[in-house]
UniProtKB/TrEMBL annotation:
The record marks Q65, W104 as: Could play a key role in the communication between the regulatory and the substrate sites. GO terms for molecular function: glucose-1-phosphate adenylyltransferase activity. Pfam families: Hexapep_GlmU (PF24894), NTP_transferase (PF00483). It comes from the Bacteria. Belongs to the bacterial/plant glucose-1-phosphate adenylyltransferase family. Pathway: Glycan biosynthesis; glycogen biosynthesis. The keyword Cell inner membrane does not apply. It catalyses: alpha-D-glucose 1-phosphate + ATP + H(+) = ADP-alpha-D-glucose + diphosphate. This is Glucose-1-phosphate adenylyltransferase. Residues 13-281 form the Nucleotidyl transferase domain. Alpha-D-glucose 1-phosphate binds at Y105, G170, E185, K186, S203. Residues 304-407 form the Glucose-1-phosphate adenylyltransferase/Bifunctional protein GlmU-like C-terminal hexapeptide domain. NCBIfam families: glgC, PRK00725.1, PRK00844.1.
Length: 419
């Protein structure tokens, strides 16, 4: 165990958190996808950051680009406990045209290339490249040690997925020792895992390199005019062809809930975002946010406990099979199978059913809201009914393929102006 601790002390996590997240539609109008709220009090990026810290990695860099203010503010507020005198840190690396030319980050690999001098100053031997926009718990120590034992040029984190669903991913064709033979982007006929004809290995966008090797690879890629300077598109396929690329199965390093399934979610659509949050209200959710052995660290705002008031017929402040965060006031409202973030205030005779309500939302009297995602700081007007007439909802709001309605303040303002 002492050797493993020494390995993690010589490693850093480089979190790529600059993606637009356009499939989340208006939820990313004002914030980048990793900064989107999740699970009642956290942000999506907290999962990658918490995994790194819980794995023993105390050197972390977060590369930002698109609409990064809320992400940067969150990291400053919630992740400011690292101490430089203990040789630990979390640094924010905004795209700032640090190299010659007029380019921002041109791809995931270029985001690291433009910060080579900074990583050099960290004096690390290994770099773990992470996406900052997925929900999962993983011990990166295990993957790092596997990388060292195999002598690979790169180790790629892989999900085990049903073969019929693998066409939505980048798929790894591997031999029986886990060496990657080919990398296929969204193949029509995904290759099966050895010994498992109904399963396939999909890339998680997690890569482990030694820093000297990655440094040279990035510099060569930067000189290639035909490269898109992206790990998944350029660097990993090149190493599969001409180097030694190994796969690491998420099943071997995921942090499970009481022997439950390996939990990983891309909450990149409104339907997926709503579903993953609502799943937390299950009796025993697959994602355990109560696990003190592998906590999800985040910015904890100082709030009073949630309060439930009124106890009259049709005017009871109650919550059934729901999660209600601190600072909420449930005044005569019935909450069912819903997740309410910090400082949500609801008023009498309202009903929330399968609702994901982001922070600082106010719900006025007699509103009925079903199968909704409500953006932060929205004021729901009195008597608004959503979730009962899909065609009428679609006139004013964003209705997903599966019938989940996204409500933002801009949508409500346009609706009010036209009535």
């Amino acid at each position: 165990m002492a050797e493993t601790q020494r390995v993690t002390r010589r490693a850093m996590a480089f979190v790529l958190a600059g993606g637009r997240g356009s499939r989340l539609k208006e939820l990313t109008d004002r914030r980048v996808k990793p900064a989107v709220h999740f699970g009642g009090k956290a942000r999506i990026v907290d999962f990658a950051l918490s995994n790194a810290m819980n794995s023993g990695i105390r050197k972390i860099a977060v590369a930002t680009q698109y609409k990064a203010h809320s992400l940067i503010r969150h990291c400053h507020r919630g992740w400011n406990f690292f101490r430089a005198e203990r040789n630990e840190f979390l640094d924010i690396l905004p795209a700032s045209q640090r190299v010659a030319g007029e380019h921002w980050y041109r791809g995931t690999a270029d985001a690291v290339t433009q910060n080579i001098d900074i990583v050099d100053n960290y004096d690390v031997d290994y770099v773990i490249i992470l996406a900052g926009d997925h929900i999962y718990k993983m011990d990166y120590e295990i993957m790092l040690c596997e990388h060292l034992d195999s002598g690979a040029d790169v180790t790629v984190g892989c999900l085990t997925v049903p073969r019929e669903e693998a066409s939505a991913f980048g798929v790894m064709d591997v031999d029986d020792k886990g060496r990657i033979l080919s990398f296929l982007e969204k193949p029509a006929d995904p290759p099966a895992m050895p010994g498992h004809p109904d399963k396939a290995l999909a890339s998680m966008g997690i890569y482990v390199f030694s820093w000297p090797f990655l440094r040279d690879l990035l510099l060569r890629d930067a000189q290639d005019p035909d490269s898109s300077h992206d790990f998944g598109t350029d660097l990993i396929p090149e190493l599969v062809r001409n180097g030694k690329a190994m796969s690491h199965r998420f099943d071997d390093s995921c942090v499970r809930t009481d022997g439950g399934p390996a939990y990983w979610k891309d909450v990149g659509t409104i339907d997926a975002f709503w579903s993953a949050n609502i799943d937390l209200t299950d009796f025993t959710p697959d994602l355990d946010l109560w696990d003190t052995d592998w906590p999800i660290w985040t910015y904890s705002e100082s709030t009073p406990p949630a309060k439930f008031i009124h106890n009259e017929k049709d005017r009871r402040g109650i919550a059934l099979s729901s999660m209600v965060s601190g600072g909420c006031i449930i005044s005569g409202t019935e909450i069912r199978n819903s997740l309410l973030f910090t400082k949500v205030h609801t008023n009498s005779y309202a009903i929330l059913d399968h609702a994901v309500v982001l922070p600082h939302v106010t719900v006025q009297r007699h509103a009925r809201l079903r199968n909704v995602v409500i953006d932060s700081r929205v004021v729901i007007p009195e008597g608004l009914v959503v979730g009962e007439d899909r065609q009428d909802d679609a006139k004013w709001f964003r209705v997903s393929e599966k019938g989940v309605t996204l409500i933002t303040q801009d949508m409500l303002d346009r609706r009010a102006a036209s009535l």
